[in-house]
Amino acid sequence: MSTPPAFPALLAPIRLGAHAVRNRTLMGSMHTGIERLDRSAERLAAFYAERARGGAGLIVTGGFAMNAEAKLDDHGPTLITEDEADALRPIPQAVHAAGGKIILQVLHTGRYGKTSGLVGASSIPSPINRRVPRPLETAEVWRTIDDYVRCAELAMRAGFDGVEIMGSEGYFLNQFTTRRCNDRSDEFGGSVENRHRIVVEIVRRTRERLGPEALIMYRISALDLVEGGAPADEVIALARAVEAAGADVINTGFGWHEARIPTIAYLVPRAAFRFAAARIKRALKIPLIVSNRINTPEVADEIIASGDADMVSMARPFLADAAFVNKAAAGRPDAINTCIACNQACLDFIFTHQPTSCLVNPRAGRELEFDEMPAPRARRRVAVVGAGAAGLACAITAAQRGHEVALYEAGAEVGGQLNLARQVPGKEEFHEMLRYFRTGLADARVALHLNRRPAAADLAKGSFDHVVVATGVRARVPAIAGIDHPKVVSYADLLAGRRQAGRRVAVIGAGGIGFDVAEYLLHEAEEAPAPAESLTNTSVDPFLAEWGVSTARAAPGGLGEARPPRPLRSVTLLQRKPEKPGRTLGLSTGWALRARLEQRGLQTLSGCSYERVDDAGLHLRVGGEARVLDVDTVVICAGQESDNALADELRGLGVAPALIGGAERAGELDALRAIDQGTRLAMTF
Ligand code: NAP
Ligand code: SF4
Description:
Layout: E1 14-16, E2 19-21, E3 25-27, H1 40-53, E4 58-64, H2 82-88, H3 90-97, E5 101-106, E6 119-120, E7 134-135, H4 138-158, E8 162-167, H5 172-177, H6 192-210, E9 215-223, H7 232-245, E10 249-254, H8 274-281, E11 288-290, H9 297-306, E12 311-314, H10 316-320, H11 324-329, H12 347-351, H13 367-371, E13 381-385, H14 389-400, E14 404-408, H15 418-421, H16 429-443, E15 447-449, H17 456-461, E16 466-469, E17 473-475, E18 488-490, H18 491-495, E19 504-508, H19 512-521, E20 525-527, H20 540-547, E21 566-567, E22 570-574, H21 590-599, E23 603-605, E24 608-614, E25 617-622, E26 625-629, E27 633-636, E28 640-642, H22 645-652, E29 658-659, H23 671-682
Parallel strand pairs: 3-4, 3-12, 4-5, 5-8, 6-7, 8-9, 9-10, 10-11, 11-12, 13-14, 13-16, 14-15, 16-29, 18-27, 19-22, 19-27, 22-23
Antiparallel strand pairs: 1-2, 17-28, 20-21, 24-25, 25-26
Helix pairs in contact: 1-3, 2-4, 4-6, 6-7, 14-23
Bound molecules: NADP nicotinamide-adenine-dinucleotide phosphate and iron/sulfur cluster.
């Protein structure tokens, strides 16, 4: 009996205008920052071609500005001249040679731009940009429309299959389509038809200029998630007008950049916004693409099969695994390196002016750099001690390079600190990371020894060519009187379920783990929030209710009343530093975590000095003033220290081990550094 095809809905071909696309996956547009590097076209060609080889149906590039005012910042990528178009040619050439299709995104950042010559529909500034935009004169709007069309024409000259016209996330076109930032009185302001005119003219004129062969995609803001945003009926009217103007396909975006509701962070349940895409799809004849927090072939296939969308856009999942589609098609979804929605090496790198990469896949965006690393010499014998993130990445990469690898783990399962992270509500994607590592160990035939703590002498005798110490960290035990009182619990015991917390809790230490522990403690609620209109999706409904996302068609911007749950516990998070806690959290995720915890009643205290724990609770001074927190439990999250005694013992026996991860440096250890370090070390064997 033959096996049924894997993910038949997702992997079915689809026609987009004149183009046959091999499956229903879109690698969505991302700012990559690679455009700013030397050899940028070559790097981008390698980056996108790897995704095309991995089976991506259609790829959209990062955004290119069509004129100087449209740029993200003074160095943002532009496509204004024929020379710029010719320089981009290697990108579509490489993607086509790999069997894929690629379109170029045309992006005007409008009032989000970080340039001096900021322009917009009107002079209303964005809350996330202090610069005030200059409203374009009517004639300048018409000229900008021409610039869009010219940019699309240049994209075709460069060899792209078409363009995506970016009309979501609160950029320039959104600034015309909604009343929130459009107070114009000319033909581009006022009525719905006038506010939509710029979009319709761009699409219509682009089709006229490029003819039927070019693939034209419009990215619509399906939910603005800001006050004064468009209600669903206006969004649907725009989608229909764009269809009539000649677009082949409509892609969706959710939430403007200034929205105070998370839309892609790990806190967002998978496919949380599909309901808004589905109601646009029902109004259209051309295909519709859904996006945001879709990261597995199972979820993607189910969406297509349900009829809620015709294609699925995944941007970060293709950073995490370039071969996402090929693995799904081969019936190996277990081998996919899943995006965990952490944003740590993609969005947060872009915010800190570094080219994009990926926490779970350090090769992403650095394809040339990794390809230029030395090929393995002879088959080596490698011992890796410690199966946390660093040890796992090192062992699997070394074995994939053909070496014979033994991996020793003192515990009963692999994962180290990842096993604690995955207990935190909202961080369930860490389960996927562990599944990927377990599959990788088996596929690469790493010899795994659980419950084994090898002695230095045995490793020295083992005639290994390389010994890697990845023994991780120990939780720091602060010198506070009463630290062994029964009220005191370590974060590891709490998250591992070995100890429970009472109803009133103090958390010592407000780093990433302190916040995670606060999230864990404040998750259990007295009563679940009642959704206004149930989508009958158990994880999505509470999310929408907590953040005030309305599924009602009439709700402007899709906003409703936020109904946070009432937690069972009261939690106070403490730190010694005088500053506001949370500075070390992720740039693009920390604000959402802080907002969620504040909504759930988290108290914070800075400038603390801890005196003792006793039956009365935690005695401390805050800004010099003595206080007692009458709590049932004190959870210690006071950072880590390296656990690297094995390395010293090995050195004493004349073996020079390599140290990675927390064993090498405990401070600011995270999975990003651990995986990167483990992978890069293995590339040198
Ligand atoms: P951390 O970020 O270094 O925070 C340790 C906390 O403990 C700080 O608030 C520090 O603040 C306090 N502390 C340090 N020594 C102390 C002492 N002797 N007595 C009392 N308090 C002390 O470490 P972590 O929270 O364990 O996190 C480890 C790493 O995991 C971080 O680098 C982070 O990157 C990563 N992580 C990140 C996230 C996230 O971003 N969501 C989540 C989990 C883990 P004071 O010195 O001011 O008291
Ligand atoms: Fe996904 Fe994190 Fe990788 Fe970004 S860094 S692609 S969010 S796993």
